Amino acid sequence: MARRSSKFEFPTLPAVAWQPGLPVHGAATWVIVVGEGGLPAAAKDAGERLGVDLGRLLEVQQATGFSPTAGATAAYPLLTGEVTEILLVGAGDGSGKDLRHAGAAIARIGRGKDELTTVVAEGIDDARLQALAEGVVLGSFTYTLKTVDPGKPVVGRVTLTDGSEAERQAVLDRGVVIGRTGWLARQFATTPSNEKDPAWLAVRATELAASTGLEVRVWDEKQLAADGFGGILAVGKGSARPPRFIRLDYVPDGATKDTPYVVLVGKGITYDTGGLSLKPREGMVSMKRDMTGGGSVIATLAALRELGAPVKVTGLICSAENMPSGTAYRPDDVIRHYGGRTTEVKNTDAEGRLVLADGLAYAVKELKPDVIVDIATLTGAIKVSLGSMLYGGLFATDDALADNLADAGRVAGEQLWRMPLPAEYEELIATPIADSVNSSKGPGSITAALFLKAFAGDIPWAHLDLSSIAESPADRLEYSLGATGAGARLLTTWLTTPTPTSGVG
Ligand code: BES
Ligand code: MN
Ligand code: ZN
After folding, report:
1. In the structure, which protein residues have their CB atom closer than 6 angstroms to any atom of ligand 1?
2. Best mutation site among 285, 349, 445 for ligand 1, i.e. most ligand atoms within 8 A of its Cβ?
3. Biological process (GO) annotations (predicted)?
4. Which numbered ligand comes closest to the C-alpha of 484?
5. Cα dihedral 320, 326, 332, 338 in deg (nearest 10)
6. What is the pLDDT of residue 375?
């Protein structure tokens, strides 16, 4: 039997194309996007083209249970002519969120088809049209190693039209790139850990750097030791697959010394068993996703040049596999991080903060950026605080930075909720043995954030704890069952606003 190659394949995305006017020859399937306000204006012309009264069709469908809530679908077969099927897809209130959902529904029903002609409301604004394109890409996501019935391929092409002569391809292109960042982050996080380890992640980053115009540097375990990355080394020590620190640099065309500079630091734990503080079976399942933050940083960096981000950005991915073994780090060990700060380990399962601490310290000492943002599936406790698939946790030492990130989260459909960083709880992570301790009683997400804060120095800093939005329980909205690749869309959206660091400092 032929062995499946484990070579990583970058995704083949659906083409999302704008069509001025109504197409003369459309696809065999036409989709009519229906909002709460009814049919798109072009539905009249489209209906004439198809020989169907679409107003009447909508009435009949509504009488038999269709309502235009976001993502709802109804199919109507045509028995003559080149078009064989009309699909009504609900767009709800027409918000970005609902149109992203509608886009995902279009992608799901388009699976296996070459092309869909899709009629949307005239004058839909850029943000919403972009969200629809994002949904088409994200709803197309597949990852399977099934050898039997692997499922239908991604829709080849979704052609959008509002019947007008407007030219709006650029808006769709941006939506496809943002959707692609989400797809890539999701693909990284979904890849099983027998395939991915820190070196694998470094190869993915290196390939993407070459194809998207970034500088890349990778530290192997020897270089990590030489430079004193004690946190990453300690967490990686128990694994036969050594840790890596990955640096990606994006410099916009025409950058000067006054161009704002942002550093992103991502948690790249390619598997989290808990280490010697071993997780129980139930808690360990899904920990292949513990590199979601690092994967999102890689996916984000890979989009910046194409989208013309106006700021300099460095992505730092702190990657290790957290395993128990005879060479593993222990509870009671004291670690010396990059730059010298010390941590007493009380729980080897609180490993994320140990690797991120090295990345933050490196950023402060070597890069001196205007802003640092770290991103991680850092704590289970954030899921207790914020529940599932509604909000990611946001911590920040700067109000403008918090607002800019929260705004980007709303636009991108990855909402954040700001959490406090009270100095009163700092005593919870104090120890006589070292500068701090890595685990403690009390509010777990806040103490984790306070631990990291000490490594960010005086630089405006935000911390995204996204465990609460890293895993979808089902194929719903623009998500598929499993890893969401949380954070990539929000970071890409934020860094491609006109002034990501406005008001900061
Ligand atoms: N990777 C986990 C956090 C996590 C848990 C993410 C569930 C997604 C789903 C992290 O490394 C961890 O184990 N955190 C511990 C910290 C504790 C030992 C202080 C936790 O949250 O239980
Ligand atoms: Mn852990
Ligand atoms: Zn972890």
Report:
1. 272, 290, 347, 349-352, 377, 379-381, 439, 444, 467
2. 349
3. proteolysis
4. 1
5. -30
6. 99
CA–CA gap between residue 423 and residue 440 (Å, rounded): 15
Q: What is the pLDDT of residue 23?
A: 86
Residues involved in catalysis: 279, 353
436-483 residue pLDDT tens: 999 999 999 999 999 999 999 999 999 999 999 999 999 999 999 999
- How far is the centre of ligand 1, averaged over its atoms, from the C-alpha of 283 (Å)? 9
Say if residues 170 and 18 touch (Cβ distance below 8 Å).
no
Query: Which residues have C-beta within 8 Å of that of residue 290, sequence separation ≥ 6?
Result: 267, 269, 270, 271, 272, 322, 352, 377
Ligand 1 atom closest to the Cα of residue 283 is 7
Token pair 């982050």 in the structure block, residue: 185
Q: How far is the CA of 143 from the centre of ligand 1 (A)?
A: 25
Cβ neighbours of residue 253 closer than 8 Å, sequence gap 6 or more: none
Strand partners, 217: 247
Report which protein residue has its CA nearest ligand 1's atom 14: 379
Q: Which CATH superfamily is domain 15-162 in?
A: Leucine Aminopeptidase, subunit E, domain 1 (3.40.220.10)
**What residue ranges do the domains of the chain occupy?**
15-162, 179-495
pLDDT at 2: 42
Q: Output the CA–CA distances (angstroms, integers) from residue 305 to 208, 388, 490, in the order listed.
A: 12, 33, 16
CATH topology of domain 179-495: Aminopeptidase (3.40.630)
Give the residue whose CA is nearest to atom 3 of ligand 1: 379
In this chain, the answer to whether the domains covering 15-162 and 179-495 adopt an identical fold is no
State the distance from the centre of ligand 3 to the C-alpha of 85, rounded, in angstroms: 47
CA distances from 271 to 46, 267, 401 (A): 51, 11, 31
**235 CA → ligand 1 middle, Å:** 14
From the CA of 448, give the closest atom in ligand 1.
Answer: 19
> In ligand 1, which atom is closest to the CA atom of 290?
1
Contact 353, 452 (CB under 8 A): yes
Ranges of the chain whose pLDDT falls below 50: 1-5
